[in-house]
């Protein structure tokens, strides 16, 4: 239990932290291979260091559905002129995704009024279950502001986007924590593999080229 608090100190005192720690205790009491999240729980006890690299991705010209029900073009959503923070989640996830979403929530809190100048995007890797209504509930759970949008769509559309950003691993249970940042349309991406703390994410964001 104490190792979890060392790994994710920014989660201490939150409702999610309590649930995560209880889940870890439960796993230790009854470790069975039937738990689809067992490996993720174990990996979170001692996650590897965050790996950073610069890369270029081409956003696919594919239709997704935003949590407000609007059908949108993913590439156009990315290219509205603002810096972009992008991750991939699913609402029934009990391990990786809540940590990543809490980091985004803390990021928007720290940005304050400046958050409106940033585009935060979370794309579901479980579109069959993640309806716009479920994504809306998920967004409310993390008090997502207007700058933070959630997307679903067809399974094929989700896979196309995942592959474009090299996060597709064949099944949602094999997903990995990845956060991507980009300063502006046409710019390269900063890819962060692993559990990024709010401090690290804010630092990476501040290092992006200044916007006009």
Helix and strand topology:
Blueprint: H1 2-7, H2 15-29, H3 38-45, E1 51-55, E2 63-66, E3 71-73, H4 74-78, E4 84-89, H5 96-111, E5 119-124, H6 132-141, E6 148-152, H7 155-164, E7 178-182, E8 189-193, H8 198-207
Parallel strand pairs: 4-5, 5-6
Antiparallel strand pairs: 1-8, 2-3, 2-6, 4-7, 7-8
Helix pairs in contact: 5-8
Task: Characterise this structure.
- With 212 residues, this protein is α+β, with helices and mostly antiparallel strands.
- It has two domains: 1-47, no CATH class; 49-207, Glutaredoxin (3-Layer(aba) Sandwich), CATH 3.40.30.10.
- It has helices at residues 2-7, 15-29, 38-45, 74-78, 96-111, 132-141, 155-164, 198-207; strands at residues 51-55, 63-66, 71-73, 84-89, 119-124, 148-152, 178-182, 189-193.
- A hairpin with a 6-residue loop joins strand 7 (178-182) and strand 8 (189-193).
- The N and C termini lie far apart (45 Å).
């Amino acid at each position: 239990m104490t190792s979890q608090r060392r790994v994710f100190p920014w989660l201490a005192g939150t409702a999610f932290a309590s649930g995560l720690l209880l889940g870890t205790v439960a796993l230790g009491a009854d470790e069975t291979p039937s738990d689809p999240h067992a490996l993720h729980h174990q990996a979170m006890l001692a996650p590897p260091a965050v790996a950073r690299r610069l890369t270029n991705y081409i956003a696919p010209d594919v239709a997704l559905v935003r949590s407000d029900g609007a059908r949108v073009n993913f590439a156009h959503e990315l290219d509205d002129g603002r810096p972009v923070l992008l991750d991939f989640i699913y609402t029934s996830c009990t391990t990786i995704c809540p940590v990543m979403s809490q980091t985004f929530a803390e990021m928007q809190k720290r940005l304050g009024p400046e958050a409106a100048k940033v585009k935060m995007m979370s794309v579901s890797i479980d579109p069959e279950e993640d309806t716009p209504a479920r994504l809306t509930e998920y967004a409310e759970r993390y008090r997502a502001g207007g700058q933070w949008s959630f997307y679903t769509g067809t399974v094929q559309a989700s896979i196309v986007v995942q592959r474009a950003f090299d996060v597709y691993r064949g099944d949602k249970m094999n997903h990995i924590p990845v956060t991507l940042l980009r300063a502006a349309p046409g710019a390269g991406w900063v890819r962060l593999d692993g559990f990024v703390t709010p401090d690290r994410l804010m630092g990476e964001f501040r290092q992006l080229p200044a916007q006009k």
